[in-house]
Amino acid sequence: MTLEDIAVILGCSKPTASQIRSGKYPTENTSLTERYARLVAVVDAARRAAALDPQAICRACPREDCTGCRVAEI
């Protein structure tokens, strides 16, 4: 994620997003660090789900026929 993405999603400035991402943001009276942790968890879960989605793999496959394909067998 870019700093701009983090800043827009969390509603903060880019310097604040940079501090949050690097773990140097003071956590007093704010939920930004918790919201960032949840954002990272959601993005990671989406990436894992996309990597394991057999239909996504098949859509990206250049083969004309699925004969012998291990993904198609599953």
Overview of this protein structure:
This protein has 74 residues and is mainly α. It has one domain. The chain has five helices and no strands. Helix 1 crosses helix 2. The longest helix is centred in the middle third of the chain and has 21 residues. The two termini are 32 Å apart. The mean pLDDT is 86.
Alpha-beta classification = mainly alpha
Name the overall outline. elongated
Compute the number of helices. Answer: 5
User: In which range does the helix fraction lie?
Assistant: 55-70%
Oligomer: single chain
Largest sheet: none
String of helices and strands: HHHHH
Distance between the termini: 32 Å
Low-confidence runs: none
Radius of gyration: 19 Å
Brief account:
This protein has one domain. The chain is 66% helix and 0% strand.
Q: Topology, pairings included?
A:
Blueprint: H1 3-10, H2 14-22, H3 32-52, H4 54-60, H5 70-73
Helix pairs in contact: 1-2
Characteristic terms for this protein:
single chain, mainly alpha, 5 helices, 74 residues
